[in-house]
Amino acid sequence: MPATPAWPPKSTPRLFVEQVLTLGATLNISGNSAHYLIGVMRLKEGALVKLFDDISGEYLATVTHIHKRDLDLTVTEKLRERETTPDLWLVQALIKKDRFDWIAEKACELGVARFVPVLTARCVVDKVKDDRLRAHMIEAAEQCERTALPHIAPLTKLDAVLKDWPSDRILYFCDERGGAPMLEAISAGPAALLIGPEGGFTDSENALIRAHANARPISLGPRILRADTAAVAAISVWMAKNGDWAA
Known about the structure:
2 domains
C-alpha cells in the first residue's frame, strides 16, 4: 500500500506569533513575516502555515486573504501542546555581540528554559538588546520545530545575581581554574550553568562565586574553551545526563 502522506506537509512554513492562538481565530500578518510568506514562499490563498505562540502550543492555519503587504490567516487545527522544557537556566556573561547572539540561538535550540545575561568585570560590552536576542531565539525555534522559547532575564551585575539567587537551584560554575568533572558533579533538580566572559572571571569574582552556598565549581575538561563553546558544551552535558536527552 502507498505510504500515507505526512500531515501537514513538512514543507509547510512555520511562524511564531505574539498573539495567543485559539481555534477559529483570524490573524493579520504584516512586516517581515508577511514578506517571507508572500514574497519568499509565494503562498496563495488556501495555503497552509504552522503557527506557535510560546503559550498554547502549535496550530495549523490557512491563508484566507492576501493583500499587497499583509495577509490573513485563520487557525483551523491544533497540532500539539507547548512542549515541556527541562528546568535549566543559562547564566551567561556578556561577550562580543555576534557570539553572544549565537549563544542565545543555541540555548534555544538545546532547550534552555531561562537565559540570564550577566555583567562582570571583564565583559568587553556592557549592554544587550533583548529584542535582538529574542529575534535570534524565534528564528531558531521556527526552524527547529520548537514550541517554547527561553525567558530572557534583564541584564544584571554578577553580585546582584548571586545575592538574589533562589535557594532551591544549584549554580554549576564552569570554572577553567578547576572543579569536579561535570558528569560526576551534576545531579537532578533545578539547575543553572554559569559561563564567564572572554578572559574569565577576576580573582575576586571567582572567590565570590565559590563562596556562594549554591555554587558548585565544575570542570569541562583539560582544554580552555571559548565562552560560546563552553556554553554549548555544558548545556549538552547537562541535557544528556539530567535533561530530556536522557529520557
